[in-house]
Structure prediction request, 465 residues.
Amino acid sequence: MSFKKFCLTFTAVAAMTMLVTFEANAQSDVTFSEHVAPILYDNCVHCHRAGGVAPMPLTTYDEVRPWAAMIKYKTQLRDKMGAMPPYYLERDIGIQNVKDDERLSEEELQIISDWVAAEAPQGNPAALPAVPQFDDSGNWKLGEPDLIVKTGEVFVQGDSPDWWGEIDLIPTGLTEDRYVAAVEMREVNDADPNAGGETVVGGRWVVHHMSWMTTVPGEEDTRVDFPTHELGRNPDVFDEKAARLLRAGSSISPLVMHLHSNGQDTTAHLEIGFYLQPVGYEPALKPGRLGLGDGLNISVNGNDPASELHSYAVLKQHTKISSFEPHLHAPGARVCLEAIWGNQIETLACSGYDHNWVKQYTYEDDYAPLLPKGTIVHLIAYMDNSASNPNVVDSRNWSGSGNRSVSNMFLHIGHQVSLTDEQFVQEMAGRRERLGLRMGDHLLGCPLCGANIPPLGPEDDSSDE
Ligand code: HEC
Prediction:
């Protein structure tokens, strides 16, 4: 085919495609009942319902209709600050295999967009799927925990300033050592959920966060770290092979609780729900450390929409990063995590950031970054300290490091595990087999997965012969 003919053919095909698309749009029969409600029921109404955390319910057509344009706007933000659902992992870069992925698909975004363009028709009410029901009695996302430990009640006056402080040790009551598979934390309070309020998440909560660990009082070297409770946080599920130890006779020792008033006098306590591994479980892997972040040298200029923070760490052990959890404060807008190994630089993850929401992205086991010791990990934060960032109170202000939301933090607080040489080689061999990788293949985040490494340890019996 000559080039000219090709171009003509191409143009004709393109024109036809455009016509077809146009016709499809013109006759778009996307309706609330048939197409949009199922998306909202699957992705939104667990929060957007009467008694949910969101400010307005999105269950019926009458409830949704006034929000149609706003729903389109918020969902099309995809991974940017302000997006709904609040889940910001970027699609076009980094590892995509995460557990409990909350992102809408491009098809779902298109349906919402077409529906709003067609002036948000209701369609046939009889076609509406059943509204999902939620059990609010317990409200544990992971189901009833094996062990629940409660803090004492705290009282926060409606108009009091923020409070930081330590609270007393709380015995777990455990009489034998057990391993913790997952932990979920929730605040239980007497605040009126319908009172509104202008603080984060409709004034529902007074505990902003609590950092804690467990220790056996009076015994040395019994400290075990656990993830911080933060408002709106999803549960923490630990690597199956690296459950956390909860010792017999241990107590929760909160390091610091941060309380903030929500506009109404509120009495509250926290409940820590432990999900335990069966008796006899032994972890094969140890929790690891990345030590990524910087709590001292942050300087964000007033009215600067685009400054960057960088932090590097060298891995001292082979490390599997089970989850990515960036932690910034109000000016934070985006975070990326890179691995530098030899002359190879890989972006493992990038996500948008919204200081209203604490989000953790947990990798599917075979896709979690698996990095050899010596790898340099690099955390990059993109800060937007401008008037267009709604989380910034007054963008004219310079801000440095500190605990308050108007100051800055810059951390990776996801989970990781460290591996011995033998475990590292075995983990890679397992992946090669399960994912059908061959020598020379490349798996993002696993620079040696496709390398020719002879097996070590028990599988290697050649040296004995
Ligand atoms: C995890 C709970 C949660 C989920 C899931 C969620 N939302 Fe929201 N949504 C909220 C909360 C809380 C707010 C108010 C605070 C904020 O904007 O961050 C909000 C705000 C909004 C707003 C803006 C309201 C306003 O006053 O401007 C829209 C629109 C919205 N959500 C739509 C959706 C849609 C559509 C989905 C599903 C595709 C969704 N949300 C999923 C909790 C949620």
Notes: The CA atoms of residues 428 and 449 lie 5 Å apart. The radius of gyration is 25 Å. The chain has three domains: 21-127, 147-284, 286-465.
